[in-house]
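Hello, quick one for you while I still have it in my head. No rush at all, and the record is pasted right below.
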Amino acid sequence: MANTTEKERKCIRYLAREMAIEDRLIFQIELMLDEELSALFYELKEAWELYPTQRNTTSREPRLSKKIKPKRKIYVLVAVLTLLVLGSFYFLKPPLNQMQSVSAHEGERKTVVLPDSSVVILNAGSSINYPREFENIREVFLAGEAYFQGQKDLNHPLCIMI
C-alpha cells in the first residue's frame, strides 16, 4: 500500500465504501472527466469483484462504527431545532397577569401609578397588589387604607378588592 498512487488510493477507498457520500459524488465526477482514472478504476474494480466480500466477524480487527444516514441526520437536526425553538418560546414568554405588589411601611405614605394611569396613595401600613397589565376588569387588591384617583373608563370598571 505504501507504493500506491493517489488515484489508486481513491479507487480503493471508493470500492471499499470508505468515502463519505460527498466524496463519492466528487469521485464519480472525476471518473467521467479523467480517462486515466477511469481506466485504473475499472481495472481495480474487476480485481475487487474477484475477491469474496464476506468478512470474518470473529476477527479482532476493529469494526467501523455505523454512520447515520444523511436523510436521518436531516430529520434529527430538524427535530432538535424544532424543540429548541418551541422550548425558547415557552421559557422566554412573559408570564400572564404577573402581579405587582407595593407596601407602605409604618409612618410613610406611598404613591403608586397603576398601568391605566390611575393614581393610588397608600396610607401607612397598607399594601396593594395589581397586575402589570389590566384586561377587561381593572382589579386591584387592597389591604389597609388608600386614596384612589381612578381614570374613568365605563367599559373597564376599576374594582377594589379589600
Summary: The two ends are 90 Å apart (CA to CA). The chain has four helices and seven strands.
